[in-house]
Design brief:
This protein is an alpha/beta fold. It has nine helices and eight strands. It has a six-stranded mixed β-sheet, sandwiched between helices. It starts with a helix and ends in a 10-residue tail after the last strand. 46% of the residues are buried. It comes from Streptomyces abikoensis. Belongs to the ComF/GntX family. This is ComF family protein.
């Protein structure tokens, strides 16, 4: 029940920049530059979890970008979905322009953006599915730029997982190993649709993205890349761009 009144409040009340607090600005120019000011880049955690596809990030997870992501996900900053979704679309586009991308001319259907699933309890507590909202905003931005794309929210958690924050890379992999699965009927979507790009708001160790890739592949889906809005700063130095 939280979502509708938060969205209404965003329409009628002045808001401050989610990145730095500048009055009457959902996202100020300076914080927006942190998000969109540089081309999205390939990022690589260390160590790399088995099965991780090529990952592209729009920005580093620091400063105003970090504050904006937290505001959207944890504090219901719904007005941030479109600017954050545009950044995510930029990361998807960077994956498509790389050697790890997809053959636009040869694919059968639209590009499928598959969000990494959140626990039901987390979605209920926040009053929104933040990952799906960002994926939908990214798909709109991609279609607006001429790329056929749709969201396929077909992954779910089949067992409880612990909160990943504060857990090292090895334990994160163990925490999510085998935890995701595709819903019934996803196989038909893979056969009729296009290639899959996994999308999420943040990558730190890559464990969740690797598990999502395993779940899609197990159902005969074709994962070509992953895209995130932000990644841990250390991951930007582990791949030559």
């Amino acid at each position: 029940m939280r979502g509708w009144w938060q969205e209404l409040a965003g329409l009628v009340a002045p808001v401050d920049c989610a990145g730095c607090g500048l009055p009457r600005s959902v996202l100020c120019g300076e914080c927006g530059a942190e998000l969109w000011g540089r081309p999205a880049r390939r990022v690589r955690p260390d160590p790399v979890p088995a099965g991780l596809p090529p990952v592209y990030a729009a920005a580093r997870y620091e400063g105003g970008v970090r504050s904006a992501l937290i505001a959207h996900k944890e504090r219901g900053g719904l007005a941030l979905a479109d600017p954050l979704g545009a950044a995510l679309a930029g990361a998807v586009g960077a994956a498509g322009r790389s050697g790890a991308g997809w053959d636009v001319r040869g694919r059968r259907g639209p590009l499928l953006l598959v969000p990494v699933p959140s626990a039901r309890s987390a979605v209920a507590g926040r009053g929104q599915d933040a990952g799906r909202r960002l994926a939908l905003a990214a798909a709109r931005a991609l279609r607006g730029s001429g790329t056929s794309a749709r969201v396929a929210a077909v992954l779910r958690l089949r067992r409880p997982v612990l909160d990943q924050s504060g857990v090292d890379a090895r334990r994160r992999v163990a925490n999510v190993a085998g935890a995701m699965e595709a819903v019934r009927g996803a196989e038909r979507l893979w056969r009729s649709g296009g290639p899959v790009v996994l999308v999420d708001d943040l990558m730190t160790t890559g464990a969740s993205l690797a598990e999502a890739a395993r779940a899609v592949t197990a159902g005969d889906g074709r994962v070509v890349a992953a895209a995130v809005i932000a990644a841990a700063p250390r991951t930007f130095g582990n791949h030559r761009n």
